[in-house]
Design brief:
4-stranded antiparallel β-sheet; 6-stranded mixed β-sheet; binds ligand DP6; globular; Alpha-Beta Plaits
């Protein structure tokens, strides 16, 4: 065809994508292959100034095989979830081209691809790097092949939580009803500017790899936990409606309480799983107690914790509370052994503390004290990087820094 003659020899695109933190948790699938959840979930997308994944995707006539680099190390490109994302983006590209003749220089869908991806945060931070990772991969591939529009459905095929990283601000992933998953999509509930005072702190408790991964853990929960079934059918639908209202009204009291309750119920379903799954450790529980003591002292909800499939805490609070709470955390635990893992974020000031919030004896003597990150904020969805000097791959299609 005439289009064939105009095919480009090499195309390269770089995108960045954010991390998201769920306040109504996703836990459990009704379809493992399509990654369809048993309940809807809701999250806050974090700003990419602080935490982000960067991915460069390239396709070339000259590449002889598909290749992938994760943080500079070559990795297996045959991973079924990665292949599912690639297949879906190419299918959308084919569909789009079939429908319009104006595409002058389409990139051949048969060219092999090279992908390089990097996180600007330590994997040890225990943040859901797969969410940002797959959101970034899908964004970059879609740009590469000129695919526009709804892409959360494709990102979902990489990792369930990744579909929520396709949007900024406050994001809901609707479980959907259809068996083919076409209605299991993420959409924005409120933009990132909606709640300018909202802040997020990450307390790194442990850099250890988690004992039970999310995918395997939630499968066992679906198979064995009656509490999870009740949660998905009864509790989450009610909580979602309530959480949307708290967000709309910027009601931190309501938002914070429900965030803590939903995290606690998620961990209760893990305990209700057979054999049980334990993601929280002693230090996590000390942070929970500290947050409640802090709130009791103030007579209202000033900080809210949430924990995913690991012991690290994520704290939601408002700008005027950050300095005081960070000071309380620093004084409550022995000095961190895990160093300065977080270097990005807004500066945190210091605050003087009332007596009852000062160091408590239970905290001391615990290994690996939590290391508070600088304050993070909600932020936008995936971004295209215009500057070609930012590509992670060189013109030869190999990683720039470690070719
Ligand atoms: C506890 O999205 O990592 O973080 O879909 O199997 O890839 P897969 O699981 P994943 O699960 C995240 C679970 C969670 C809660 C949440 O982010 O909603």
């Amino acid at each position: 065809s005439s289009a064939m003659a105009e095919e480009r020899a090499l195309a390269m695109v770089t995108c960045t994508a954010p991390v998201n933190i769920a306040v109504i948790k996703y836990w459990g699938k009704r379809d493992n292959d399509l990654i369809l959840p048993i309940n809807s979930s809701l999250s806050v997308t974090l700003h990419q100034d602080q935490l982000k994944t960067t991915t460069t995707a390239a396709a070339s006539r000259d590449f002889t095989e598909a290749r992938l680099w994760l943080n500079g190390e070559e990795a297996d490109v045959g991973h079924p979830r990665l292949q599912a994302c690639l297949r879906e983006v190419r299918r959308l590209a084919r569909k789009r081209r079939g429908g319009s003749a104006e595409d002058t220089a389409p990139l051949s869908l048969s060219y092999k691809i090279h992908v390089a991806t990097e996180n600007n945060f330590p994997t040890a931070a225990g943040l859901a790097s797969s969410a940002a990772g797959y959101a970034c991969l899908v964004s970059a591939l879609a740009r590469l092949y000129g695919v526009e529009g709804e892409l959360s459905e494709v990102a979902r095929r990489g990792s369930g939580s990744a579909c929520r990283s396709m949007w900024g601000g406050f994001v809901q992933w609707q479980r959907g009803e259809r068996p083919d998953g076409r209605d299991s999509l993420a959409h924005q509930v409120a933009p990132e500017m909606h709640w300018p005072e909202l802040r997020v702190l990450v307390l790194v408790v442990s850099g250890e790899k988690k004992q039970v991964g999310s995918t395997a853990g939630m499968q066992t929960s679906v198979d064995t936990s009656p509490l999870l079934k009740h949660r998905a059918e009864v509790v989450v639908p009610e909580r979602l409606a309530l959480m949307m209202r708290h967000i709309r009204e910027r009601d931190f009291e309501g938002f914070g309480q429900l965030t803590m309750q939903d995290s606690n119920q998620f961990h209760a379903t893990c305990l209700d799983t057979f054999p049980p799954i334990f993601y929280l450790n002693d230090l996590s529980r000390h942070i929970i107690a500290l947050a409640h003591r802090f709130n009791t002292h103030h007579g209202c909800t000033k900080v809210a914790y949430t924990f995913d499939a690991g012991p690290n805490a994520v704290i939601f609070t408002l700008a005027d509370t950050v300095a005081e709470f960070v000071e309380v955390v620093r004084r409550s635990f022995p000095p961190a052994t895990n160093g300065d893992q977080f270097v990005r974020g807004l500066p945190v000031g210091s605050a003087s503390l009332p007596e009852e919030l000062l160091p408590h004896p239970q905290g001391s003597g615990l290994p690996g004290a939590p290391n508070p990150s600088p304050a993070l904020q909600p932020g936008p969805g995936p971004q295209l990087v215009d500057d070609p000097s930012q590509h992670l791959l060189g013109a030869d299609g190999l990683p720039r820094r470690c070719a």
